[in-house]
Specification:
Elements lengths: L2 E6 L19 H17 L4 E7 L3 H10 L2 E3 L7 H15 L4 E5 L8 H11 L4 E5 L6 E6 L13 H7 L3 E2 L6 H4 L5 H10 L3 H7 L8
Parallel strand pairs: 1-2, 1-4, 2-3, 5-7
Antiparallel strand pairs: 4-6, 5-6
Length: about 210
């Protein structure tokens, strides 16, 4: 099965505030963009992915991610993460009504195409499925089969909320790169240990990361 991925990205100036202990205000927008660039590049290199749509109103991010091959969808609802994902999924299915759609976090800088393919192939066995993040509290990927709505419930404790809404949790091993999102300095250290993509490697090279 080929999937259409929907990746939400808030304006870079407001992104990654929880990295304030690791990256200064002037650095965080570039770091957030680098995370998204590595995420999109890896997703587009995945054999199970047909296309990638990024929902964002950030002009710079839109330009840079479109250059990688992503389709940019303006965040018309402007009402937060889950509304953006619903809007993006709707935009995908306006073009391809029978598309299998998956929401993917924009902050997976260590993402590996083969690991993402394993997750998506496993998700194809269920009407709706999700993958918990490395902290086992949140969600990094939520997938919906062609005849299913996405029903995103991202945010705090989204693992429990997606399970409560009937999505099947994918209990896979060996897909750490798909689980390792980055919100804090510890998350960034974990992603760096896995091996990040070239955009994040370049931006993070000059950071003094506590505990590294």
């Amino acid at each position: 099965m080929q999937w259409s991925l929907v990746i939400p990205l808030k304006p870079l100036a407001r992104a990654k505030s929880r990295l304030s202990d690791t990256a200064a205000d002037g650095v965080r927008p570039g770091l957030a963009l680098a995370f998204a660039q590595d995420t999109v590049a890896a997703a587009l290199a995945c054999q199970s992915v047909a296309d990638v749509s990024v929902v964002t109103d950030d002009t710079l991010a839109g330009r840079e991610l479109a250059a990688l091959g992503a389709r940019i969808v303006p965040d018309a609802p402007g009402s937060g993460l889950n509304a953006a994902l619903g809007h993006g999924a709707g935009a995908v299915r306006e073009r391809r009504p029978r598309a299998a759609v998956a929401a993917l976090n924009a902050d997976l800088p260590a993402l590996r195409p083969l690991e993402l393919s394993r997750v998506l192939d496993a998700a194809a066995e269920f009407p709706r499925a999700f993958l918990a993040d490395a902290a086992a509290l949140g969600t990094t990927l939520l997938a919906a089969a062609p005849d299913q709505e996405l029903h995103p419930a991202f945010g705090a404790d989204s693992r429990a909320r997606h399970r409560a809404r009937g999505a099947t949790e994918l209990r896979l091993t060996g897909v750490d790169s798909v689980r390792q999102d980055v919100d804090t300095g510890d998350d960034l250290r974990a992603a760096l240990a896995l091996g990040v993509g070239p955009f994040t490697a370049a931006v993070s090279a000059g950071l003094l990361i506590p505990g590294s």
